[in-house]
Amino acid sequence: MPCLRGVVLHLILCLTLTILLPISLLWNLILKGRFTLTWERVLAISCIAMSVDPLFFYIPVVDEKSKCLGMDRTLSNTVLVLRSLTDLTFTLHIIALIHDRIDIPSNSDSDPGKHIYERILRRMKWLSKDIIIDVIAILPIPQVFGAYWYFLSIQREISCWHQACRNTKGCRATNYCEDTSSSADITLLNDFCPINPSNATLFDFGIFLDALQSGNTGSISFTTKFFYTFWWGIRNLSNFGSDLETSNYVWENCFTIFISLVGLLLFLYLMGNVQTYILWESTKALEVQEEKVKAKYEDLHSWMLDNAIPEKIKIEVVKIIKYQKIFERNYATGVDVDVDLVFVFNAITVNGNQPVASYLKEHFCANALMKVSILQDVGEDEFNLVLKFSIPVIYEENSYVVRAGEPDDKMLIITQGVLIVYVDNTAAGSSSIIIPKSRFEKGEVYGEELLNGRIPISTRDVKCQTKVEAFALTSRGLKFVVTMLRQTRTTSTLFYDPELVNKV
After folding, report:
1. Nearest CA among 59, 83, 85, 86 for reference residue 71
2. In the chain, where the domains are located
3. 108 SS3 class
4. CA 479/CA 485 separation, integer angstroms
5. What are the pLDDT digits (tens) for 59-83?
6. 423 against 258, higher pLDDT
7. Element spanning 60, H or E
8. Following DSSP, what letter does each residue of 331-383 receive, concatenated?
9. Which of 21, 70, 119, 308 has the most Cβ atoms closer than 10 angstroms to its Cβ?
10. 440 near 418, Cβ under 8 Å?
């Protein structure tokens, strides 16, 4: 009877709340189909609905002193109200979905000659997976094994009472605590269904003994019994129910098997999610790498555009870098390099692509070297020799190419950036203020006087006003080039030993 009264109260409360809803709200939510637009706002209610269901199992309680079955009235009323509200939300959503699907115009022909089966399908077009899921969500499906364990513990004790009274006349096994007209044979039930201590020979409570001995099935605080049973569920799901010692009761064994299977499925689900997360992270990292590599190729195109590289050479440079996957390998090893003169030349010469490198050297250096007076009368071989010994270098902004008091042993053919030469006038007896003496920019040559054969000690600071990209003739290259130039001036023919060139 208490269960029947609870169901009736549930239905009455649900219908009452439905009728009392404002007509305007129903018009906007159902007739105008606006409910689906507000479904995200009540998504939390659907989560509450799933958490409310297990609370029904905590309603029955056992009075061990009187051996009777009672109900937690406060919990019962609270759960019924919460469940009714959530059921109402789902009901409105189902109605809205059905209404929206019925309003969708059908493209199929409504000719009465069509088969009756097609008409039925057209009429049932509102039925969808979303509607089925919502209908299932209304059902009070148990969500927590701990709550079900609590409920079955009470059921097993009542089963023991029934078994004790089976062969005893006048014994009433199940008494409701509110029914004062009859009483149970407490002594008989205590003797046949001992709990603390228990006697498995008389009656084996199996996995439910702990709940009975702890007193959680009695009229105690709901918070206490809830967290105790919740912990029991988590503990046994996590170890797949391996610590559970069951009796020979069939449904008890089915329950423990179900716990083991669900625990295993949850574990597999967790592993699947971990693998999915790892795959997602890998995919995301790959996408980030692809974006960065794409940005580097854009930087490469911008660099070649700024330096007026011919289209044919552009294609060759990009082809070489893509073939070697230089950007990809750099990011795989955590190396992030700027696209500049040194990077490009290292990339195209790593596998001996000398023709492209030679063309780029000529493209960058030829015009500037032709302005150097000492090189204006040399032949093509001598000119190419200067190009051969030129190497790409980079100087960062505000860095020094050479400081006063150091050997001035390099000639720079500037392709990008600005060099400022400072002279210290202290030696001339004037003030110690450092003032600009000269300025070298793109397309100019710094240190051409070194081709005369003397490497002096610098009396000036040479500083980069911006980042400088250049081709440099260093001391080894300068010595060989100067030697060849001297031979050219004396014999009018440049003669050099190829083996010596290769050694240098």
Report:
1. 59
2. 1-143, 378-503
3. coil
4. 10
5. 888 888 888 888 888 888 888 888 7
6. 258
7. strand 60-63
8. HHTT-----SHHHHHHHHHTTT-HHHHHHHHHHHHHHHHHTSGGGTT--HHHH
9. 70
10. yes
Which amino acid would we find at residue 167? N
Q: Which single residue is written with the structure tokens 């109260």? A: 9
Q: In which residue are the tokens 């439905």 written?
A: 18
Banded model confidence at residue 107, pLDDT cuts 50, 70, 90: low
Instruction: Name which residue leads in pLDDT, 494 or 173.
Output: 173
Residues contacting residue 145 through CB under 8 Å, at least 6 positions apart: 232, 233, 236, 237, 259, 262
Model confidence pLDDT, tens digit, residues 181-215 = 556 677 888 888 888 888 888 888 889 898 888 88
Across 206-231, average pLDDT: 86
Q: Which two tokens stand for residue 52?
A: 């409310």
How does strand 68-71 pair with strand 60-63?
antiparallel
Question: In whole angstroms, what is the distance from residue 179 CA to residue 413 CA?
Answer: 108
**Sheet strand arrangement including 434-440:** 400-402, 460-464, 419-424, 434-440
CB neighbours of 146 closer than 8 A, spacing ≥ 6? 54, 228, 229, 230, 231, 232, 233, 234
- The dihedral sign for the CA sequence 202, 208, 213, 217: negative
Identity at 388, one-letter amino acid code: K
Q: Whole-angstrom Cα distance, residue 92 to residue 131?
A: 11
Relative orientation angle of helices 354-370 and 341-349, to the nearest 10 degrees: 140
CB neighbours of residue 259 within 10 Å: 22
The span from the CA of 473 to the CA of 482, in Å, is 11
> pLDDT per residue over 289-309, tens digit each?
889 889 999 999 999 999 999
Hunting for tokens 């689906």 — which residue is that? Answer: 36
- Judged by DSSP in three states, 138 sits in helix
Contact 473, 481 (CB under 8 A): yes
What letters, b where the CB count within 10 A reaches 16 and e where it falls short, cover 19-50? eeeeeeeeeebbeeeebeeeeeeeeebeeebe
Q: Cβ(68)–Cβ(175) under 8 Å?
A: yes
Q: Quote the CA–CA distance of 254 and 312 in Å, as a whole number.
A: 76
CATH architecture of the region 378-503: Sandwich (2.60)
| Cα–Cα distance, 226 to 7 (Å, whole number) | 23
d(CA 429, CA 479): 35
Stretch 21-27: mean pLDDT: 42
Confidence of residue 120 (pLDDT cuts 50, 70, 90): very low
Task: Provide the angle, in degrees to the nearest 10, between the axes of the packed helices 475-491 and 380-388.
Answer: 170
Count of residues in the chain: 504
Q: Please tell me the pTM assigned to this model.
A: 0.53
220 HSE (CA, 13 A, CB side): 14
Residue partners of 337: CB distance under 8 A and separation at least 6: 330, 343
